[in-house]
Amino acid sequence: MREALDMAREKGLDLIEVAPQAQPPVCRIMDYGKYKYEIGKKERDQHRKQKQQELKELKLSPRTAEHDLQVRVKRAIEFLEHGDRVKVTMFFKAREVTHPEIGRRLMDKMVEELTDHATVVKPVSLEGKLMTLILSPKTT
After folding, report:
1. Are 55 and 84 in contact (CB under 8 A)?
2. DSSP 21-68
3. Is the bond preceding 123 in cis, omega lying within 30 degrees of 0?
């Protein structure tokens, strides 16, 4: 151990104990500062390459017209191709909630239009005056 420490000092490097419980202990002569810098650099690169998936929301109404629905579908496709998840929310006002089948038909039509681009993560559900659906991009 003393010889290794002297060798490391001669070269201007550090003596790093790799496996202290081994008999005899395993050590490595290296520049510890450079080693820590390289590890940090690798971690930063990995973090930079990760894609954070966002949840984009599209709002509908039971009175949403056909053309408006097609516009929402195009927006959803853009979000999905970008790699984001899409939450489709339908808000029922006043007495519209007494006819949830109208909203469900619109949601089903939207799912049908997006089958090539998305998979359903959370199916259509009605909670109070909100009907929601969550879609995720299809993995190829």
Report:
1. yes
2. TSSSPEEEEE-HHHHHHHHHHHHHHHHHH--PPPEEEEEE-TT--HHH
3. no
Residue 21: give its domain's CATH number.
3.10.20.80
pTM of the model: 0.64
- Distance CA(96)–CA(119), nearest Å, equals 28
CB 54 within 8 A of CB 84: yes
pLDDT of residue 102: 93
In a shared domain, residues 126 and 62: yes
Query: What's the total number of domains in the chain?
Result: 2
CA 8 to chain centre: 45
> Residue 90 and residue 130: Cα distance in Å, rounded?
6
The alpha carbon dihedral of 10, 13, 18, 21 has a sign of: positive
Task: Give me the domain span that covers residue 131.
Answer: 55-137
Q: Which residues of the chain have pLDDT under 70?
A: 140
Alpha helix (H) residue ranges in 50-99: 66-82
